[in-house]
Design brief:
With about 230 residues, the protein is of the alpha+beta class. About 20% of the residues lie in helices and about 25% in strands. The protein has 3 helices and 11 strands, in the order βββββββββββααα. Strands 1, 2, 4, 5, 6, 8, 10 and 11 form an 8-stranded antiparallel beta sheet that branches. A 3-stranded antiparallel beta sheet has the order 3-9-7, with no helix packed on it. The radius of gyration is 45 Å and the shape is rod-shaped.
C-alpha cells in the first residue's frame, strides 16, 4: 500500500501557478541545504520540510496561490501558513519560518507574491535559511512536490554547492618537462678531459722537436758529400 505521506500533491501544475519561496543567486533556483526526510512515526526524529539557502531580510514568496490561514509566532519564531487553492480535501497547507509575515490572515495571495521577510533567526541551519513545509491534514509531504519538474531542473544540483575543484591526478593532464635533445647529449659527451689535453700537448712538442732536427741533418749530409 502506498504511503500517503509520500504521495505527490496533485497532477502537474504549470510554472505560472508555482514559485520558489526564495530567490537563488543570479536568477537560478535556491540551493536546498537539507531535503525532506519524514520520520517513521509522528513522534520520531526527522526533517518535515526542506531548508532553502537564503539571507536575513530576503523576500519570502507564496509557493502556490491560496489563502493565509495563520500569520504569527510559534515558540518565538515567526510562522506563516497558506492554504493552497483547489488542492483537495483536506487542503494542502504550506508553512514558512522563521519569517516576519507581511500578509495578514484571511488574505488571498498568488504564486510568487511577497508574503513575508526572512527573520534573522534563530535558524536550525548553519547558515541563514528558510524552512519550507507542506502538510495535508496531519501528514507531512515533500514541499518540492508542489513544483513542476521544469522548475526543479532549472539550476544547480541540490545540497551544498561546490566551493573548489579537485586537483587532477591523471598523469595525462599534468605538464611534462621536455626531454633533452640529442645535440645537447653529444655536447656533454665531447667535453675535453685532462688526459686528452696532455696527449695533444705531447704531440705538439714532438712535432716541434722533429722540425728542429731537420736543418742540422741537412748540413751534415752536405758536408759529407764534399769530403768524398
Amino acid at each position: 500500500m502506498e504511503d500517503p505521506a509520500r504521495t505527490e500533491p496533485g497532477a502537474g501544475p504549470s510554472a505560472g501557478e508555482r514559485s520558489w519561496p526564495v530567490a537563488g543567486q543570479a536568477g537560478i533556483r535556491p540551493t536546498v541545504l537539507r531535503g525532506w526526510d519524514p520520520p517513521p512515526s509522528p513522534w520520531a526524529a526527522g526533517h518535515r520540510g526542506v531548508d532553502l539557502a537564503s539571507s536575513a531580510g530576503a523576500e519570502v514568496r507564496a509557493a502556490a496561490p491560496g489563502r493565509v490561514v495563520y500569520a504569527g509566532t510559534v515558540a518565538g519564531r515567526g510562522v506563516l501558513t497558506i492554504e493552497v487553492s483547489r488542492s483537495g480535501r483536506p487542503p494542502l497547507r504550506t508553512t514558512y519560518e522563521p519569517v516576519r509575515p507581511t500578509a495578514r490572515k484571511g488574505q488571498r495571495v498568488t504564486a510568487g507574491q511577497r508574503v513575508a521577510v526572512l527573520q534573522r533567526g534563530p535558524f536550525h541551519c548553519r547558515a541563514p535559511c528558510l524552512h519550507w513545509g507542506l502538510r495535508r491534514g496531519k501528514a507531512y509531504l515533500d514541499p518540492l512536490s508542489l513544483l513542476p519538474r521544469s522548475m526543479l531542473r532549472s539550476g544547480p544540483s541540490r545540497l551544498l554547492p561546490v566551493f573548489g575543484a579537485p586537483v587532477p591526478t591523471d598523469s595525462r593532464t599534468l605538464p611534462r618537462h621536455p626531454e633533452p635533445t640529442e645535440p645537447a647529449a653529444h655536447a656533454r659527451g665531447s667535453a675535453p678531459t685532462t688526459a686528452a689535453l696532455l696527449g695533444t700537448v705531447g704531440l705538439a712538442a714532438a712535432a716541434l722537436w722533429a722540425l728542429g732536427r731537420l736543418p742540422r741533418l741537412g748540413r751534415r749530409a752536405g758536408g759529407a758529400g764534399r769530403g768524398e
